[in-house]
Specification:
The protein is an alpha/beta fold. The protein has helices at about 20-35, 40-50, 70-80, 100-110, 130-150, 165-170, 205-215; strands at about 5, 20, 35-40, 60, 60-65, 85-90, 115, 155, 175-185, 195. A three-stranded parallel β-sheet has the order 5-6-7. The protein binds zinc ion.
């Protein structure tokens, strides 16, 4: 789970959300050197559902919110490896050229990325009324599908916040699964509350490697 791929500006409120572009490139090289292959979440889902083959050591690389460096820094690195990313796009990020304008999303889709929903305004969904909950969960998917003509089959809970009511709305909207910020491997038993591995700005390449090696034990 990545957020911003960029150097953290001085005084950034959440510096751990920023991964330096050079660290990101080094982390991807580490994955490739250790036999990993990035795939979309949809491919993992197909494997879980009907055993459609996956490459050795499959890994899903998710990028939350829609921030500029995901296109300017992450996309070229992944393109060189012929790997897709998964963009969990907040619809409002489309409004600014400093976040993720539509042409940048199209560029990523053209490179094989998967587009998933991450609401419209990024609220804590456990604290919104039922009308807003539905608008954020279902409305975000409808908007992304209309704009980009891709499936938008998975959902990502803003700030990892969910409860039974939120999960029920995600299922009712027709998503095939959803990702959280719960630390750990994604498992088919948790298809609507999939775990992820948070990569922090301070991880560097050594910390990144340690997190993956701990999980592969
Ligand atoms: Zn987010």
């Amino acid at each position: 789970m990545y957020h911003v791929i960029a150097d953290a500006p001085a005084g950034a409120a959440f510096p751990e959300l920023f991964v330096r572009p050079s660290d990101f490139a080094g982390q991807m090289s580490w994955l490739a050197a250790h036999g990993f292959h990035a795939v979309t979440l949809h491919r993992v889902y197909e494997y879980w559902l009907r055993g459609t083959p996956l490459p050795a050591r499959p890994i899903v690389l998710t990028f939350d919110d829609g921030t500029l460096g995901q296109d300017t820094h992450a996309l070229p690195v992944l393109r060189r490896l012929h790997w897709p990313g998964v963009l969990n796009l907040k619809v409002n990020a489309l409004k600014s050229k400093y976040t993720m304008p539509p042409w940048r999303v199209r560029e990523m889709l053209g490179a094989g990325w998967e587009l998933d929903a991450h609401t419209i305004t990024h609220p804590d969904l456990t604290h919104v009324g039922s009308a807003q909950l539905w608008h954020e969960v279902d409305g975000s998917r409808v908007e992304l599908q209309q704009l980009f003509h891709v499936p938008v089959a998975f959902f990502c809970y803003p700030s990892g916040r969910y409860d039974q009511r939120v999960v029920a709305a995600v299922r009712r909207a027709g998503y095939l699964g959803a990702t959280t910020t719960n630390y750990g491997l994604g498992r088919p038993a948790d298809i609507y509350t999939l775990g992820r591995i948070r990569i922090n700005g301070s991880d560097g390449i050594a910390g990144f490697a340690r997190k993956l090696q701990d999980l592969s034990r």
